[in-house]
Write a structure and sequence with these properties.
Keywords: Membrane, Transmembrane, Transmembrane helix. The protein has 208 residues and is mainly α. It contains 6 helices and no strands.
Length: 208
């Protein structure tokens, strides 16, 4: 072999990883829709306990932790935040049924209000992705805020409006899921998500 000719490196391609957002969005859609149907009186809260704990909690936390391994900071914190929210909420329901560490008074609406603020904060980073994602987060923030205010003020109408906003967020999340699934499995976008609202800056190589 001619020494002047460099040996070709044998590069083994890295195996393609699945997108954790597929199960993250699925968990959000099913849990949010189930909870809001209960809020509107279509079904009782028993379904919220099981569906919320499994799909809203366990599934979203798994999606968040898998996002860590693909270096996706945004979905790592968003799915984990709302995954643990959905683990806490069924705990509130169970405590109320058993009278064990029962959460009453303003604690539950305050908890929801905190996550409304979180959703609003996540909107700015989400706006660098497309139009559908920040709109979904704004609907989540608005829905949780109205439901919390309704609980404080005893205004059932506000809670109903909040529930419909959250159902809208669930529908938009399903819309994004359809596009993501088509892109990952068929290699094509089948529905438009809209342009980003905020231009994405350069991500620094090292964070302080």
């Amino acid at each position: 072999m001619d020494a002047a000719v460099p040996a070709r490196a044998h590069v083994v391609p890295e195996p393609r990883r699945a997108d954790p957002g597929l199960i993250g969005l699925l968990g959000f859609v099913i849990a949010t829709l189930t909870a809001q149907l209960a809020h509107l009186g279509v079904q009782n809260e028993s379904a919220v306990f099981w569906v919320g704990a499994v799909f809203g909690g366990v599934v979203q936390v798994i999606a968040g932790m898998l996002s860590y391994f693909v270096g996706d900071d945004f979905h790592f914190i968003v799915y984990n935040a709302f995954g643990w929210y959905w683990i806490c909420m069924p705990g509130f329901l169970l405590g109320g049924e058993l009278g064990f560490f029962e959460v009453s008074g303003p604690a539950r609406p305050l908890f929801s209000m905190m996550f409304a603020v979180l959703a609003l904060g996540f909107t700015f980073a989400g706006a660098t992705h497309n139009s559908a994602l920040p709109l979904t987060l704004l609907l989540v923030a608005g829905g949780l805020t109205l439901e919390a205010v309704a609980a404080f003020a005893g205004a059932a109408t506000l809670g109903t409006v909040g529930a419909w906003l959250l159902i809208g967020a669930s529908a938009l999340a399903f819309y994004m899921l359809v596009d993501k699934f088509a892109w990952r499995t068929m290699g094509r976008h089948i529905v438009p998500l809209g342009p980003p609202w905020i231009r994405r800056g350069d991500v620094p190589a090292e964070h302080p």
